[in-house]
UniProtKB/TrEMBL annotation:
This is Putative ABC transport system ATP-binding protein. CDD domains: ABC_MJ0796_LolCDE_FtsE. GO terms for molecular function: ATP binding; ATP hydrolysis activity; transmembrane transporter activity. It holds the Pfam family ABC_tran. It comes from the Bacteria.
Length: 232
């Protein structure tokens, strides 16, 4: 990747599914550029392909054809194992329902991605403490998910997503299960990670209020993106 290239580039991407022997096309020639440091909200009707796109960006699923590059990595050319390893090192994912393990406390949940790395127990502890502090949860290291509010659980989810210091955060309806106040707190946190730490964020959301926190809003419809025009 050169400095003039966008961080994420999607070219002529095709993706479809076979349902009951019938082929349905979700994307047929999708193009998209996302520069480094962007914060993009992706909106669109149910079934328009938002999760399908997020799964391809996460390397969980693969395009049928076309190019999907993130940084210097061409995900469309990589096998499943290479994509899984790439994912572990390059991105964090924030889920709607947090996906915390109930039998692990907050610190242990956040530590999970670090177990794949050659770090000492002390280094892992230090990193976990630092990110829990960053999301405003210091002092709650030993609390279990069942003892936390939805907003606090999502903060643990965000801490887990950033503990490996990835450049890219993919967020799938990160506030879909939260009340307005908790949602705004989480969105402020994402904005901080974008503006102060330079994380590139792609967030799928149905909530127009959540989308306001992003720098750009893209509406997905019939396999293409339309960018929302905003007052300067
Ligand atoms: N694994 C799969 N096998 C077959 N069809 C699939 C699969 N995953 C998604 N689809 C179909 O692809 C289309 C897009 O689904 P997708 O989940 O990406 O939409 P979405 O925009 O995320 O919807 P929602 O807002 O409801 O989450 C839908 O018609 C869905 O039924």
């Amino acid at each position: 990747m050169t400095n003039t290239q966008p961080y994420i580039s999607i070219r002529h991407l095709q993706k479809g599914y076979k349902i009951g022997g019938e082929a349905i096309s979700i994307f047929d020639g999708l193009d998209l550029d996302i520069p480094n440091g962007d914060f993009v909200a992706i909106m669109g009707p149910s079934g328009s392909g938002k999760s399908t796109l997020l799964n391809m960006l996460a390397g969980i699923d693969r395009p049928d054809a076309g190019e999907l590059r993130i940084g210097n990595s061409y995900l469309n050319q990589m096998g499943e194992g290479a994509r899984a390893s790439w994912r572990a090192h390059n991105m964090g994912i924030v889920f709607q329902f947090y996906n915390l393990l109930p039998m692990l406390n907050a610190a242990e949940n956040v530590e999970l991605p670090l177990l794949l790395k050659p770090l000492s127990a002390k280094d892992r502890r230090d990193r976990v403490r630092k990110v829990l502090d960053l999301v405003g949860l210091s002092g709650r290291e030993r609390q279990y998910p069942s003892m936390m509010s939805g907003g606090q659980q999502q903060r643990v989810g965000i801490a887990r997503a950033i503990v490996s210091d990835p450049g890219l955060l993919l967020c799938d309806e990160p506030t879909g299960d939260l009340d307005r106040k908790s949602a705004d707190d989480v969105l402020q946190m994402l904005r901080f990670l974008n503006q102060e730490l330079g994380k590139t964020i792609i967030m799928v959301t149905h909530d127009p209020e959540a989308a306001k926190y992003a720098k750009r809003v893209l509406h997905l419809d019939k396999g293409n993106f339309v960018e929302e025009k905003r007052a300067a």
